[in-house]
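hiii so my PI (J.) wants the whole complex modelled not just the main chain, which honestly fair. so below is everything: two entries, each one labled with what it is. i double checked the lines twice but i was tired so who knows lol
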Amino acid sequence: MNAAPTPMATLRATARGYAPRVLQGRGWVLAGLVLVPVALSLLIFTLIRLKGGEASSTEAVKVFHEVLVKMMLPIMALVAAPAGIREDLEQRTLPLLLVRPAPAWALPLGKGLPWFAWGALWLVVGVLGLQVLGGDPSLLPGRLVALVGAWWGELALMTLVGLLFKRGTLWGALYFFIWEPLVRIFPPALQRLTFTHHIESLAGSRAAEVGTSQLLAQEQVSTHPALALLALLLFGAICWALAGWKLQRTPVGLAGSEGEG
Amino acid sequence: MISLDRASLRYGPILGLSPTTFELPDGGGITGLLGPNGAGKSSLLQLLSGLLPPSGGEVRIFGEAPFRNPAVLARLGLVPEGDRLPTGLRADRWLRMMGELSGLSGEALQAAVAQALQTVGMADRAHLTFARMSKGMRQRIRLAQALLHGPELLILDEPFNGLDPEARLTLMALLRDLAEKGTRILVSSHILGEIAQLTDRILLLFRGRLLAEGTVTEIRQLLDRHPVELRLTGEAQALARWAVEQPELAALRMEEDAVVISVRSPRDILPRLQKAAAEGGIPLRALDPLDLNLDAVFQYLTKDHA
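here's the output for the full assembly
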């Protein structure tokens, strides 16, 4: 009889085993979600400059906050998370994993790691691409860390929600596109319960670019960057742990759905 | 090896498996799990393979409860029904991952993957993605993943579904071979002929209840109240005259050149019948048992419990 694999061996095996999935359709959609807006921005600003116009360096900040952070990052999580452990649940291939002696709680993270790495790669490429538009180079590390940290947290959250609810994607979309925008009118305590707050604490607030029509209803608070990063990483780790706990505890039958046993 | 003590399974308000008790001993051999669709076969297999814990009672595999128990899961292999496999992956790489999740590594892993692929006859096609494989090929890969770690208990849920006749025969031969080498195999099917070709040791399920356990003959003996039908071919009138004098006769039907008799306790009447025919006492040309096969047993039992 073989010894049961360790959690690390389980993570390594699942991450390596499912890694080729990111090079297929869904993976390229993920890459496109970052690259298309960045490439379009570059194209537009290049054309403006070619015509003798002057492109403001603050435009890069706007693309970062309004497009990448607000739209593309949540959509990436909504696209990638269903390809994680939720995919095995829906395709009824999860029992093949669960009858192995490997710890079931490690499977959500093991299957999510390739998607995290793939998404992080393109986010880094995207942020570097935006830097070409201009902007303060000193803010670059903050932007990189903010996006990758938020990607870790958002992907983990969506994986957990996908295991908790049948319509996990819907609940995730409601969270990202209804709760998060409320950060502008939230009191300080609630602002800290959004990804946007921590991203802005790390990457620099966009407040300087806010027009009079976008005046905040509440004072915008800030968290120390180190604490903001810690919050994102910790939140992601907790979500991965909860997803693992949910899978470990939940009987999943051959039909793929949860059993009542 | 397998022990169920009033183990039951509920899906919410629906009873998937009534309290069931049986044991399978250690050692190799094939046991058929038989029953129509909805009989509770998959429920039982999910309990045995540790996917679901019992709602009541106790399930023990190798002396331990199997649900999320690595010590048990390391010793069993499961081939679930259907041909579903993860999309977009290559068979050999996926098998490698499954081997690692079974605790294999290094050269042992390489050897196990190669051996499993060789066993199921897929060594030369393992580089294909699942999407490019036929149903039969995917079924073989599913069997390979269950064999990777050399399980002592192999559980197969409807493994013959969708296989062409040649693939069925190949799979049957493979299962017999594994059983001879010491693997205990539990195979479910709703098609009686498949199980009958593999083994005569069966567990018969119907509507979530274990109706019978044993060989076809043993089960048949449990059913003494159900007469066995025999067709006696020869001079019908003379055969009928002989038959009505037998105390085991339950019913009689005349055919053109034969008589079909229903008898209880065929073990008693058959020797007398053979003796009478050998001595020329009855004009018997042929004797055909009509319902001693698995189909008949199944029909009898399910009709009785319907």
